[in-house]
Design goal:
The complex is a heterodimer. Chain A is mainly α. In chain A, 62% of the residues lie in helices and 0% in strands. Chain A contains 16 helices and one strand. In chain A, helix 8 packs across helix 9. The longest helix of chain A has 34 residues. Helix content of chain B is 22%, strand content 20%. In chain B, strand 7 and strand 8 form a beta hairpin. The two termini of chain B are 38 Å apart. Classes of the chains: A mainly alpha, B alpha/beta. At the A-B interface, strand 1, helix 3 and helix 16 of A face strand 20, helix 8, helix 12 and helix 13 of B.
């Protein structure tokens, strides 16, 4: 790797103070530190050795945790397509075709998200003269996973740019943002272009082909919501839905595995849990938020059972875990350390409320079938308030000690 | 009533290069130096000697015009060879070329039974042993005009590669007890002696009389006196406590019993780059060159006075800090590493499982760490880590943010009075975003102290 190092050293003066490309220093620096860990040493006073971890390593761990969901999403995109047009029946039939169709649809979205976001990030770094933040490694992967495979690429680009600028850079970059960046991107799409990210038609890619007779592209959440209106038991409605594609499309196991229509990476509860295991084992995400998030959804589901004004409310609470993006949202979005609650006690409350709010929004609000997106954003806003009271309790303990 | 406190939070940095329990013979150090920069809070230093003067061990060479009762004295006898100043004539070092035989000022023994507190304070302050007493809050040299609510002594050091105090203080029992007896007279409250509850306690500590002996167990920073104070008798606004190291107590004891200023001590030579990692007997402020030169495994090293968490980088010919009982020598880390952040490795040490996921398989492994900064400074991102290495009811990130924002009320409310740099040193080590935590802590303390 010596020649690379030599190359870097040769280019360096160009970008340093007084060099021709001085203004692009941080872009150069980002590339350099990506290739080579810098040769900085610790100061004269203070800690003389440092932990080997840095933010790059931490962020890439999150990306690794998302890879199972991404791979599953790619395959499932192809699977749903062939299922809808009636060219496949079994899960593993036409494996290669499904993979290729999935890759064709998903890869461009990933590339566009990384490119658009990376460009904004680099532009801001150069103008504002700060290092390029590694947080974008994660955001660029999260955004593709929470949109349907049919989303137009320009919308992906626009949403990414909007989210990086408005949700992050105006606050000062990674570490300063109030809202989760990827969730903001999705919320932007949801409110700006609802036609492409809601309803029954966007979740399954059909292309030029026509769907089989009796096909419905509705998600499980939509089916459940309609069951509530029609007053049919939800489990029954789910079982009877889309029999054209085989009778058990919305069975509990199938939904847990994720062989259902939905946004690219969020359909599989299993893959979200695999990600959760990676994140918790590496200590990157807070297990408190994940555990309390799932617990909150279950608890609220039980409370809804008690009320049971309609059939949706009477749905067994564990169905909330496997429908929609709840698992993905709790594992990858709610645990974002910057926008989540930052105190340990606060994390319990924060996670619990996200789970509960998600179910409340799902069950009671006709306009938003998926509650996790708004629940996370809402709790992002409230996280500082939770922390405020946790910190205040710490101060009070200290103050009481003084007066005793 | 002695207390037993079990701490869970923290982290032991397991480094290679632990000192073997034997006293080695090295050529004695030629020069000694008092570094006024070691005394935090020394405001207006005034030098009492000139280059060329001869001094004895115990001759005053320096005092602070802001606290002129306290004298800083020469650790050995000899000739003042250099008074080194830096920018704006800032006083850096007063160097002494030592005589072969140390001549000591006769300061007179102290009869603890008859002496009154004000006279005792005066004798201690004049004799040069006083700067061993550190005041909390702020971690500055104690003011003789104050009466502390208690005095705390940590009888064990949990820092990386720290010396075993039981070994280093062998044979000093009599002086240690005499020092304790003197301390008891200084405070209106108790003298707390905190020992390591997980090991058998050396007789010098377990046999100590007139003090309260408390036991602490747990990983570093369980041996930090600040952490111990927090669990025994926390410092609130307006209160003052003093701390002192066992070596400092021995110095006071020697003054009481022998009537001389005797700053000889046993220090540990540690670190992966030393061929012989052992203990050596020397004197405060000693040049380290005779211990280090010819004792190195490799050429490109960093010599640290103190330990790797709170120590100070010194030159190969540098001097041992006033409060340090250890030298650590580690490799200098000024190299580039290709994809260093991404490569899987078992050589690097991390508190975080994102890098050290499988390190639990080999918990006893000793690591060679160098001085590479391991990344660049970023905004705070990861949460909950600082709390997990700080065994106190303190929220380090909020406190640090309050310091950055220079919010005085917030700093006070979040507990700035209870900490000094070393208490959050582990935070600086584990920080993903590489903040200069200890520097920030001192900045916050100074803001509060001089407001």
């Amino acid at each position: 790797m010596k020649f690379l190092r030599d190359l870097m050293d040769k280019q360096r003066p160009l970008f340093e103070k007084g060099g021709k490309l001085e203004s692009l220093y941080y872009a150069f620096e980002a590339g350099e530190t990506f290739l080579f860990s810098p040769n900085h040493t610790t100061g004269i006073k203070g800690a003389q050795v440092k932990d080997a971890i840095d933010l790059k390593r931490m962020m890439i761990t999150v990306v690794v945790a998302m890879i199972p969901a991404l791979l599953f999403g790619i395959y499932n995109t192809g699977h749903q397509h062939l299922l809808a047009v009636g060219e496949t029946a079994g899960l593993w039939e036409n494996f290669g075709d499904k993979l290729i169709i999935g890759l064709q649809l998903v890869l461009p979205i990933v590339i566009v998200a990384y490119a658009a976001g990376g460009l904004v990030e680099a532009t801001f770094a150069v103008i504002r003269k700060h290092p390029i933040n590694e947080g974008f490694l994660v955001t660029g992967m999260l955004i593709p996973l929470v949109v349907p495979a049919t989303t137009p690429l320009w919308q992906v680009a626009l949403a990414t740019i909007f989210a990086v600028v408005i949700a992050k850079e105006v606050f000062g970059g990674t570490g300063m943002n109030i809202l989760n960046v990827a969730m903001t991107a999705r919320a932007f799409l949801y409110f700006a272009y609802p036609a492409q990210i809601s309803g029954d038609l966007v979740w399954t890619y059909l292309g030029e082909k026509t769907a089989v007779d009796g096909f419905s592209g509705a998600t499980a959440l939509a089916v459940a919501y309609n069951a509530g209106i029609d007053n049919v038991p939800v489990t029954e409605a789910l079982a009877n839905h889309n029999t054209a594609l085989g009778s058990d499309l919305f069975s509990f196991t199938n939904m847990f595995m994720g062989w259902i229509p939905g946004s690219i990476g969020e359909t599989s509860t299993l893959m979200a849990l695999v990600g959760a295991v990676i994140l918790i084992a590496t200590g990157v995400a807070s297990w408190k938020i994940i555990v309390s998030g799932f617990a909150g959804a279950y608890l609220m589901g039980l409370v809804m059972n008690l009320l049971a004004v309609n059939e949706y409310m009477a749905m067994p609470p564990q169905y909330h875990w496997v429908m929609g993006g709840l698992a993905f949202g709790i594992v990858f979005m709610a645990t974002d350390p910057v926008s989540a609650s930052q105190t340990e006690t606060g994390k319990w409350i924060y996670g619990l409320l996200i789970g509960m709010l998600t179910v409340i929004i799902r069950v009671t609000n006709p306009a938003y079938p998926e509650g996790i997106m708004l629940a996370v954003l809402f709790m992002n806003v409230f996280a500082p308030l939770i922390d405020y009271y946790v910190v205040k309790a710490n101060k009070t303990r200290r103050l009481q000690r003084a007066t005793v | 009533m002695s207390k037993i406190v079990k701490l869970k939070k923290g982290f032991d940095i397991n480094l290679a290069g632990k000192a073997k329990q034997e006293l080695a013979d090295f050529a004695p150090a030629q020069t000694f130096a008092i570094k006024p920069t070691d005394f935090i809070g020394l405001q207006r230093p005034k030098v009492l000697v000139q280059e060329g003067d001869t001094v004895k061990a115990g001759t005053p060479i320096l005092f602070d015009k802001a606290m002129d009762q306290v004298k800083y004295v020469a650790p050995v006898s000899g000739e003042i060879v250099e008074i080194k100043r830096g920018e704006k004539r800032k006083l850096l070092e007063i160097k002494i070329l030592a005589d072969k035989e140390v001549a000591r000022e006769n300061l007179g023994k102290i009869d603890l039974k008859s002496i009154q507190r004000p006279q005792l304070v005066e004798r201690l302050a004049e004799s040069g042993v006083w700067p061993n007493l550190i005041q909390r809050p702020f971690g500055v040299v104690a003011n003789p005009e104050d009466t502390p609510k208690a005095i705390f002594i940590s009888a064990f050091d949990t820092h990386p590669l720290a010396p075993d105090l039981g070994f280093a203080l062998q044979g000093e029992d009599q002086y240690f007890q005499a020092g304790l007896d003197a301390l008891v007279k200084l405070t209106s409250g108790k003298v707390h002696l905190n020992v390591d509850g997980s090991k058998s306690v050396p007789a010098i500590f377990s046999g100590a009389k007139g003090v309260q002996i408390n036991q602490f167990t747990g990983p570093h920073p369980a041996g930090n006196v600040g952490v111990q104070i927090h669990h025994l008798d926390p410092i609130n606004k307006g209160e003052i406590a003093w701390t002192i190291s066992p070596q400092g107590v021995v110095q006071i004891g020697k003054l009481v019993v022998e009537g001389v200023y005797d700053a000889t001590k046993v220090i540990a030579l540690t670190g992966s780059e030393l061929t012989k990692a052992v203990y050596v007997k020397t004197t405060l402020g000693s040049s380290v060159s005779t211990f280090v030169k010819g004792n190195l495994n490799s050429g490109h090293v960093r010599v640290i006075s103190g330990n790797v968490l709170t120590g100070e980088k010194i030159a190969l010919e540098g001097y041992l800090g006033f409060y340090h009982h250890q030298i650590t020598v580690i490799p200098e880390g000024d190299y580039y590493e290709f994809l260093g952040w991404a490569k899987p490795t078992t050589k690097k040490l991390s508190y975080h499982r994102a890098l050290g996921l499988l390190s639990f398989l080999n918990p006893k492994k000793e690591y060679v760490l160098d001085s590479n900064a391991r990344g660049e400074e970023r905004a705070f991102v990861q949460t909950g880590v600082f709390e997990s290495v700080t065994p106190m009811d303190i929220l380090p990130v909020y406190l640090l943010k309050a310091i950055m924002a220079e919010d005085f009320d917030e700093m006070e409310e979040l507990g700035i009075y209870e900490i000094v740099e070393e208490d959050l040193a582990l935070c600086e080590f584990v920080d993903v975003s590489k903040h200069p935590v200890q520097e920030l802590v001192r900045k916050g303390i100074e803001l509060i102290q001089y407001s």
